Amino acid sequence: MFATNAYAMAGGAEQQAGGGMEGIIMLVIMFAIFYLLLIRPQQKRAKQHKELVENLKSGDQVVTAGGLHGKIVAVQDDIITLEIASNVRIKINRPSIVGTKTDQLED
């Protein structure tokens, strides 16, 4: 009776050692999936937005994060003057531009 119990306990210890390695492999696989589905696309979008903001110039038709559509009339360091109607101009921060009118048509 005792020999059977000792044998069963020894087999359980071997199975737990293998289970620990499977757990680590599963964590690595989950991180790889997380990276491919969430982190990488977000970095790509951030890079595209940075390029868009850096390449803004006067005369571009843009859309802001607040949904305002307008034409850029002046570009300073971090401030853009946007004409949203005839003789109606507002100043906004450069990063609040989310796209150009041509970008909106392509999506």
Question: Quick gist of this model?
Answer:
This protein has 107 residues and is α+β, with helices and mostly antiparallel strands. It has helices at 2-54, 101-106, and strands at 61-64, 69-75, 79-85, 88-93, 97-100.
Mean pLDDT: 84
Compute the CA-based radius of gyration.
28 Å
> Please, how many domains?
2
SSE sequence, one letter per element? HEEEEEH
Low-confidence stretches: none
* Percentage of residues in strands: 25-35%
Question: What is the number of beta strands?
Answer: 5
User: What percentage of residues falls in helices of 4 or more residues?
Assistant: 55-70%
- Sheet with most strands: strand arrangement: 4-3-2-1-5
Specify the structural class: alpha+beta
**Number of contiguous helices:** 2
* Alpha-carbon distance between the two ends: 73 Å
For the sheet with most strands, the description reads:
5 strands, antiparallel
Q: Shape from CA axes? A: rod-shaped
What do these coordinates show?
The protein is α+β, with helices and mostly antiparallel strands. It folds into two domains: 1-55; 57-107, SH3 type barrels, CATH 2.30.30. It is built from two helices and five strands. The protein has helices at residues 2-54, 101-106; strands at 61-64, 69-75, 79-85, 88-93, 97-100. The chain has a five-stranded antiparallel sheet with strand order 4-3-2-1-5. The protein is rod-shaped. The N and C termini lie far apart (73 Å).
Features:
107 residues, alpha+beta, SH3 type barrels, 2 domains, five-stranded antiparallel beta sheet, 2 helices, 5 strands, 55% helix, 26% strand
